[in-house]
Amino acid sequence: MLGIIRVLTHDDRQFVEEHGRLIQREYGIVSLSRCIPDQRKGIYDDASQILAVPKIVALGQALQAEGCSALFLSCAADPGLAELRRAVTIPIISAGSASASVAAMLKRPAAVMGIGADAPLPFKQLLGESVIYARPEGVFNTTDLLTPQGRESALSCADTLYRQGAQVIAFSCTGFSTIALADSIRQHLGKIAIDAVSAAGLFISQLAPR
Amino acid sequence: MLGIIRVLTHDDRQFVEEHGRLIQREYGIVSLSRCIPDQRKGIYDDASQILAVPKIVALGQALQAEGCSALFLSCAADPGLAELRRAVTIPIISAGSASASVAAMLKRPAAVMGIGADAPLPFKQLLGESVIYARPEGVFNTTDLLTPQGRESALSCADTLYRQGAQVIAFSCTGFSTIALADSIRQHLGKIAIDAVSAAGLFISQLAPR
Q: InterPro entries per the record (chains A, B) (predicted)?
């Protein structure tokens, strides 16, 4: 059983289990998703990240105690990943380093696409401080992506990055997973895009959690 | 410490430790390489594979007992992978499924390149029974790759596959790692190639063996 750590507090089970559903659909892996407590706006700055890290560590330990054989830290910033690795004995895959490391391994011109102001730390560490980064016009949070304009803006942003010479785009936001942007890119642009949830599933699939 | 299982018997330490050196150079991971005993020709047919599986399992158990926190089964056919997973409690990455699963995750037209008669099983399982497969002309074993003609033939084989529509080539032979064929492809053809040893290193890097 894979334990999925969601780094925000949310009451909607459908929403909380969404990354688990994507991983099950693509890799047939069954999971158990849990939220950290009392962070309804998730992690959005240094203070909220500092507050979240001990909760992430405690949740990871609880999931291991409940029998999970691997963990997925579902956030592109890998918050508390090092601390979590010290606190549990099972393998942990995190969305940011999963996505960035696959892009880095391909060793072709890469760009990062997200919804924040800048590429998250694991992308800079694995693809270089000066890695090209873009966010879709008019998209500032995952809800903006769910509108027809949001989807169009995301595809258009990717198209621009490919035209500028990127051969690979790594997603630094799991909101793109929800709207299946990687599929749109493959279908409409015929290019290579690394979905962060799918990249995490790739790693988990090779760990063969039992 | 990563434990590397070589599926043939060889006295030359340099040769035995070569995949470990490649992984250390690319990912900074330190490893310990060991060969299975009494199989100087390695695995080359069903009978030699049946003979090798219990040796692979025993070697994996010994490496875990010596303190390895992850294993790399360095063979594109994943021989005995399921049996080994049942016999040890640490994560195991195998060259064949590592290479094939990265190619599959990209979901673009893929081909497989090796030196055997056909694509090994993990490549058919992950990329489809009918996945396009080719081997370089005049290359029948890894030694053939080490000559200038062998290298030229390998690059030319890749070029043909890309011209036929492949956007991604997954290597099903670790001999291509030795001659750095993926780098040649990137440099001369500007295309995406998945090196099997490098793909294995990618997975190990995210497992963070301690």
A: Asp/Glu/hydantoin_racemase, Asp/Glu_race
